[in-house]
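Handout, tutorial session.
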Amino acid sequence: MTWTAPELQPTRTLVGADERPMLQSWLDFHRQTLLGKCGGLDGEQLATRSVEPSSLSLLGLVRHLTDVERGWFRTSAAGEEIEPVYGTEAEPDADFDDVAALPADEVFAAFHAEVAACDAAVAALSLDHVFHVPWRSDDYTLRWVYLHMIEEYARHNGHADLLRERIDGVTGSF
């Protein structure tokens, strides 16, 4: 089965907009970009590894970002006591490993559900909301999380560009 990406919405120019809508717009743009890089591929193609010994794949990136979203927005910023979707203490890289174990449609459904849950979890929090991350021994703000997530997606979207080109030669924006 081939996965169909959503239509990529152009990023609106938010010059002069408030900071929160600007940050949310850029995060949403990068979320959509990742999904666009996965569009039109079947499960086997989505699970294709970059090069040995790397376990990097498009499906692994979607799984990884599902866990990263959950970890920063829901577990850290919102203080929810929930486990990662894929990673475990015993297998911290499970998001990239064994990507063929779940059908791609289930991975994308989990991603969409997590994004919606993350957005809802922090909707009422101020960008200045401060929280402590014990595994990092530091305090962070929600503003920092938005900036970090935009950076995280931008970096991994670069990986997705290369992976997609390796799979079927497709390059460019989606």
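The second record follows below. Compare its token runs with those of the first.
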Amino acid sequence: MGTFIQLVVDGLSTGSIYGALALAIVLVSQATGLINFAQGGMAVLSAYVAWWFTTLGLPLILAILLAVLVSFVMGALIERYLMRRFERGDPDTAVVVTIGLLTLITGVCGWLWTYNNRQFASLFSLDTVQVLGASISVRSIGTIVVIVAMMLLLQAMFVGTKLGLALRAVAINPQSASFSGLPVGRLLMVGWGMAAVLGAVAGALVAPQLSLTPGMMDTALVYALAAVILGGLTSPIGVVVAAWLIGVLENLAAAYLPFIGYDLKVAVPFILIFVVLIVRPQGLFGRKVVVRV
């Protein structure tokens, strides 16, 4: 039982990191209708900015808060001066631009801070607590709590605030939203800025568990995209639950299914995607899109 609980909690902690990136992808999608493949690179850049502030002698929490502020500005500027040129055109072109942006940001991080591993301090204690024979780290618990808070806040924003409703209106039909008096350009900048903030939180959570490198979020981005497909692009809660499901099932399959093991556990989310897309194409928590002709 202790081993099982350990695997589940570790899976929830890892899945929470995937969930943070997935929430950022959902936020951009809800605001612009696009999938942002550069989200992982933006998270890495934010983590490097936070690390750089700590090298100047700033406390960790202040460094992360400043990095979050920088991330918001960065996301808003990327939307205003780069993505806006493609948002009204072919969606496939915009997606390719985000992939190019991912490559660019990763290269810039390597150029500025090299590709050497950097140590990033953890927000949470490395102590452990005993639960039914399992040693659960305080960092795992803290990571899960942070993601739950982010998930609930984002869901509440989309459902119960004017900002959330305005972002959704802009994503669905920007022209109609503009005719209704909504500041479409400003809302798009806010959406990208908030997504960058979520990415910054993800970077601050994953950097202490891995060494800080320009490519540290590459694998997490793949899992985050899997969580988006499983959970549904319209549901912040759904993508986090899907990310947790991926993290937990991946750990359990590696431990209890010998033919999968730790070498093939990466296949678990893709098997889940295959099954879900057959049974429920819109995702576990997504809504069907009805098109009137």
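Points raised in discussion: The chain has one domain: 2-216.
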